[in-house]
Amino acid sequence: MTQASDIFDTGNNRRSQMTRQQIGRLVDELDTLSRTECDPVRFRHELLSRAVHGTAAVAGLVWVLPGSQEFVESQPSPFECQIGLENITGSAGNVPPPAAWSPLFEESTSAAEPLTVAANGQTGNGSFRNPSSNILTVAAFPANGDLRGGLMLFHEPDVSPEFQRGTQQLLAVLCELAGDFQRNHQLRELTILQSEQRAFEQFRQAALNGSDLQTLAHAIANEGQRFLKCDRVSVVVRCNRRFIVRSVSGVDSIDRRSTTVRRLQDLANVAAAEGSSRWFEPGQNMAAEFLTETARPLSESTRWRPAAICQLQPKLFTACWSSNC
After folding, report:
1. Phi, psi of 9 (to 5 degrees)
2. 202 versus 137: which is more confidently predicted?
C-alpha cells in the first residue's frame, strides 16, 4: 500500500499543503472506520467526504455501476452520493448528464491505477471525452464480485502534475480501504448467516423432538422467540370449532380468562377465516376491516402489538409480538 507520507509531499502550492500528519490522520480514521459495522453507504460517503476535503476538490462522487449488488435499480444515475456536483458544468454551460460518465467508469474498472483526464480531454483509449472544464481523477474499488464502483474527484484545471499524481495515490489508498471494508462487511454478513442457520437448526430439532402437542407448542413458542428475535411468540391451536392459546414464550402458565389471551384467540379465528398469514409493518394502520374488532383492542389492552400471525397448519397458528414501548 502507498504510505500516507508519500502523498502530496510536493511544492508549496496551496492544494499541496496537506502535511504528512494530516494525510496520515485521514487515512487512519478511515482505516478504523473500515473495521466497524458501519453501513456500507455511510462508509462510502465518509470516504468521499474526506477525499473531497482532503484534496480541496471542487466536487466529488461515489459511482456504482449497474449489475453491482449495491446498485439500486430505481436510482436515476450511477452516482450513489455526491458532494458539490452542482458546481460542475460542461463546456457548453450545461451540467453533463450521468450517462456521459459511464464509459469512464467502465474503463476505470479495468485500469491498473487511478485515471486522470484533462479538462475537455479524453482517456488514453479514446472511449471517454471529459465533458467538464475540470480535471478528473477517477479510481475503482477493488473487484470483489458484488461491487463495481469507485471514486471520482473534480479539480480546477490549473493544478500541477505533481498534485495530480498525489491525488491518484490518495484515491488508490482510499479505494483499497473501501475494499477492506467491503470484505469485512461480507465476512460479518456471512458470520450472521451461519449463526442464523445454527439457530434455525436448533429450532427445527426442538420442534421435531416434541412428543405431544403441548411439548411441540412450547418448543415453537420458546425456540421460535429466540430464532425470530422478537419480544414474544404465542402458539394458538384449533380445538373443535375455536382456537385456544397453548403456549406463550417465557410464560409457564396461561391465564385463559385474561383479555390478552381472549383477544389473541379471537384474532386467530379471524385469521383462520381469511385462510392466510398476516404481517404488520411497524407503524402500519391496524384498522383494516378484518382486524378492526380484534387486533386493535388487543394492542390497546397490552404493551405488546402483533407483528405477525402465521398459519403453520390449518389448525395451528403462531403469533409474533413486538413491544409498543
Report:
1. -90, 55
2. 137
Per residue in 129-146, pLDDT tens? 898 889 999 999 987 656
Task: Let me know if 282 is exposed, middle or buried by CB neighbors in 10 A (0-12, 13-18, 19+).
Answer: exposed
100 DSSP assignment: G
Q: Which residues contact 229 (CB under 8 A, 6 or more apart)?
A: none
CA separation for the pair 267, 293 (Å, rounded): 9
Number of CB atoms found within 10 A of residue 88's CB: 19
Q: Write the pLDDT tens digit of every residue in 212-270.
A: 888 888 888 888 887 777 778 888 888 777 788 888 888 888 887 887 788 777 777 77
Helices (H), 40-160: 40-54, 102-109
Q: Are 57 and 138 in contact (CB under 8 A)?
A: no
Question: Per this entry, what is the length of the chain?
Answer: 325
pTM over 0.70: no
| Contact of 310 with 277, CB cutoff 8 Å | yes
The strand ranges marked E within the chain are 59-64, 79-83, 115-117, 135-140, 149-155, 232-239, 242-248, 278-279, 304-313, 316-323
Q: How many CB atoms lie within 10 A of CB 310?
A: 16
Nearest-angstrom CA–CA distance, 107 and 82: 20
Q: What pLDDT does 311 receive? A: 65
257 C-beta neighbours (distance < 10 Å), count? 7
Q: How far apart are CA 81 and CA 44, in angstroms?
A: 8
Kindly state the average pLDDT of the residues 109-133.
Answer: 89
